[in-house]
Amino acid sequence: MARSLAERLGVEHVELDALFHGPGWTEPDPDDFRSRVAAALDAATDGWVVCGNYSLVQEPVVWPRADTVVFLDVDRSVVMRRVVARTLRRVVRREELWNGNREPWRNLWAWDPEKNIIRWSWTRHATYRQRYRAAADARAHPHLHFVTLRTPAEIATFLATAG
Predict the structure, then answer these.
(1) For residue 51, what are the domain limits?
(2) In this predicted model, what pLDDT tens digit does every residue of 59-68 receive, in sequence order?
(3) DSSP letter string over 42-84?
(4) CATH number for the domain that contains residue 59
């Protein structure tokens, strides 16, 4: 969705996973990650769409520079169908994700949500829903416009009318 929105708006697409996951799934130091994200946003002089919700960079780096937050508040059943299908496709096709990384077969059976994106999505769905709803309601960032999209139809309409 973020990539499509960036294309529609004619701006850079900044994928946080690509900045976070180094070769061999290495993770950067938190300050290095914040610096990478800030540099990517600063380099996108015509604007950007960020994909990802890393709390490490969200409030201190991304949101102060943003004007709009699009929150996909989609039902867990829809999220899970999509995550399972996408993950299985990536594993079977050996698709490269970021920096040479591929999702390994063994992660499909991992109980640890940090290794299994399917389990991560299941266990974090309510947490992220609550976090974004609170951020939109609290108005801690009065300069931000929050757009909440709850259905695939709302997402399609938003994309079709963006720009």
Answers:
(1) 2-161
(2) 999 999 999 9
(3) HH-TT-EEEE---HHHIIIIIHHH-SEEEEE---HHHHHHHHH
(4) 3.40.50
